[in-house]
Amino acid sequence: MMNLRVQKRYACRWVVSILFILATSFLLMQQAHAVRIKDIADIKGVRENQLVGYGLVVGLEGTGDSDDSLFTIQSLASLLEKMGVTVQPTDIEDVENVAAVMVTGNLPPFASMGSRIDVLVSSIGDAENLQGGTLLFTPLKAADGSVYAVAHGPVSTGGFAVSGNSGDQVQKNFPTVGRVVGGALVEKEIHSNFNQKDSLTLALHQPDFTTATRVAQAINRAFYSQLAQTQNAGSIRVMVPGNYLGNTVQFVTLIESLGVTPDMVSKVVVNERTGTVVMGENVRISTIAIAHGNLSIQINESQNVSQPLPFSRGGQTVVTPESEIMVQEGKNPLFLVESGISIAEVVKALNALGVTPRDLIAIFQALKVAGALQAELEII
Known about the structure:
Elements: H1 2-32, E1 35-36, H2 37-40, E2 41-43, E3 49-58, H3 70-82, E4 98-107, E5 116-123, E6 134-141, E7 147-154, E8 160-163, E9 169-172, E10 177-186, E11 199-204, H4 209-223, E12 228-230, E13 235-239, H5 248-256, E14 259-260, E15 267-271, E16 276-279, E17 284-285, E18 288-290, E19 295-306, E20 318-329, E21 335-337, H6 343-352, H7 357-370, E22 373-374, E23 376-379
Parallel strand pairs: 15-23
Antiparallel strand pairs: 1-14, 2-11, 3-4, 3-6, 4-5, 5-10, 6-7, 7-10, 8-9, 11-13, 12-13, 15-16, 17-22, 18-21, 19-20
């Protein structure tokens, strides 16, 4: 009797172990195809803010704005006046070493005073090259009109433009656009009470009802509570648990690391300019027969010249054209493609036809017209 109980006990442990191994394997398989919520969604309200400003780049080697750029002359005169030098714009005859530029940058979320950001410098006049120039003190404003950063420093164009006396010119990239690495100093912070929030809203990069539901389910499973609720295809509202109130940052860190398998719409993307065809995993086609034949026409023309022999007393030179036309039509068989096959089988069947990417474009367009393509066809 004792041995029977021991055997049953070991049998139960064995069954539990097998179930645990199967459950673990299933979870690992799911995680293998999952992506982090951090990579498919953002926290609503946590974003960059665009900054823009007008400034001058000086120190150019005769490649700045010409005298036709009146705003450059006026800006230079105004700048000199602020420096204590009174000069009239009409007295400035040559500004080839100065260029008027627009300075743009992005203020990261939670940027603090004293931190540095990169800015992009773009010429708005007729300057030829900003290489070697220095951006002068330029306030950067946001949409509310307040100054949040100040830009200043040497401009790096990452390109060049050289020309010879004969007019030949060699150019790499765009020398009228440059970057000042770490050239903007943050002077004003955007105040936020993020750590005191009692709820958050996740915004999906690609709105989808199925993906939004999976995100909510993953959060609820992780915290054993109904914290997340989908509002629409692109938003998930998440309540902050009581033990994380005042420590929302740690709560967001846990949410961002959760794995979710995003869903996607069956789509075939076609680029006719480059001949590129991209098909999604869930693309299916109905039962249909496909035949794709190529028609090749080649025309060779030549000129036959007939002229009299040397020292002959008569005759004239005659030119007779001769054309040779060759027409070749492909004899591709008719292929039957079964309904509901996978993307791998679709590619295999199309490769059997010997089609090129540009042929695929014509075939997919014909499949869409025939109603056999169970996916969206997007032509870019």
